[in-house]
Design a protein that fits this description.
The protein is α/β, with parallel strands linked by helices. It is built from five helices and seven strands. Strand 6 and strand 7 form a beta hairpin. Helix 4 packs across helix 5.
Length: 171
């Protein structure tokens, strides 16, 4: 996935990692030359990420609204393994929130678990909402995003688990 992100993003432009969790991808983007801010909806995760990566700019905010982030702030938006943890009714507002913070011509990379699941919760309680590719494409179009690429990759570490990777551009 990392190569797809680098190929999709505009080098050297303001970048945001929405749902940064532990800060791993934010740190990777900074090391790759992208000035990046990480946001996570969990105050505890932001604190843990700050402890692990004190040099990073890590902040708290939540999808779907991303209320603290001004409009058109970022040329590059990464939202990896986040949308699947939202309830299904939050998909369209979340995509609209991501589009709102993007600059015109900006790029969005979304990843989500594409595997079919028989239960919406994992044994540890995490929510895994199935995301329909066509519905996601409609949400993108309604939010002014054109889908440039949509791939599915197998997760080498878990049998039967696949990941969708979507690259979109703000029109």
């Amino acid at each position: 996935m990392q190569l797809q992100v680098l190929a999709a993003f505009v080098p050297g432009q303001p970048t945001v990692d929405i749902g940064c969790g532990s800060g791993r991808d934010t740190a990777w983007l900074v090391a790759a030359g992208f000035p990046t801010v990480g946001y996570d909806g969990s105050i505890g995760m932001v604190a843990a990420a700050r402890a692990a990566y004190p040099e990073l700019d890590l902040r708290h905010d939540t999808l779907p609204h991303l209320a603290t982030i001004p409009d058109e702030s970022y040329a590059n938006v990464l939202c990896s393994a986040v949308l699947m943890h939202l309830p299904s009714e939050a998909l369209a507002p979340a995509v609209a929130g991501l589009a709102r913070i993007m600059r015109p011509g900006g790029r969005l990379v979304l990843t989500y678990r594409a595997s079919e699941t028989t239960t919406p919760r994992e044994p540890d309680g995490r929510l895994y909402t199935p995301i329909d590719q066509d519905e996601l494409a409609q949400c993108c179009a309604a939010s002014g995003l054109g889908v440039l690429k949509q791939d599915v990759e197998a997760d080498g570490g878990r049998a039967g688990v696949h990941w969708s990777i979507v690259v979109a551009e703000r029109i």
